[in-house]
Amino acid sequence: MGVNLEKEVDVRYAEPKQREKANQMRIEKKRWYENNRELCLRRASNNYQDNRANKLEYQKEYTKKNKDKISKYKKIYHKNNKIKCANARRRRRAHKAKVQEKYDSIDGQITKMVFKNKCFKCNSNVRLAIDHHKPLSKGFALNIKNAAVLCGSCNSRKGTKMPDDFYSITELLEINILFKIAYSIKKEIYNDQIGFAKK
What we know:
Shape: elongated
Number of helices: 8
Distance between the termini: 40 Å
Radius of gyration: 25 Å
Structural class: mainly alpha
Oligomer: single chain
Strand order of the largest sheet: 1-2
Helix content: 55-70%
Order of helices and strands: HHHHHEEHHH
C-alpha cells in the first residue's frame, strides 16, 4: 500500500470529510505496519546503519549550535518531571554499580508514606531523599525493604556506611518494622492489581 505523506491533512483544522479520510489513512498505515513490522524494523535498522556517521555528525553540530536552547529545555523538563528524573538518575547509578533495581514511583510513594514524609534520623521534613538503607556501593539494590527516608544532611552523614554503623539498635528495630509495613502495603497493592486484571 502506498500512502502519500505529502497530502496528509492536519486533522485539527480539517473539514469533517477530510478528517474522516485522514483517520482512515492513519488506520490503514497502522494496519500495514502491523502486517509488515519485520520489514519496517529491518529497513529502519539498515537506514540507521547506513547513515549512522551522518546522523552522529548532525547531532554534534546541532548540539554545538543550540547549547542554550537545549540547556533551557533540559531545565524546564527537569523542573516539571522531578520524580521521573530522580528515578532515571537512580537507575543509572544502579546500572553503573551492576545492580538490578526494581524500585518505581509507587514504591517511592509507599516509602514516603510509611516514613510519614520526614527524616527517619532527625524528623526533619526539609530536603528529603530516599536513601539506600544498605548502600548501593556495597552491591545492595534499592527495593521496598532497603529504602529509607533521610534528609540531605543525614543522608550525607550516612554516606556508604552500613546501617549498624549509623543507627542505634532501637532505630534499627524500628526501621525494620517500617520496612515490613512498606512491604505488606506493596504486596496488598500488587494483589489488588492482579485481582483487578483477572476480573
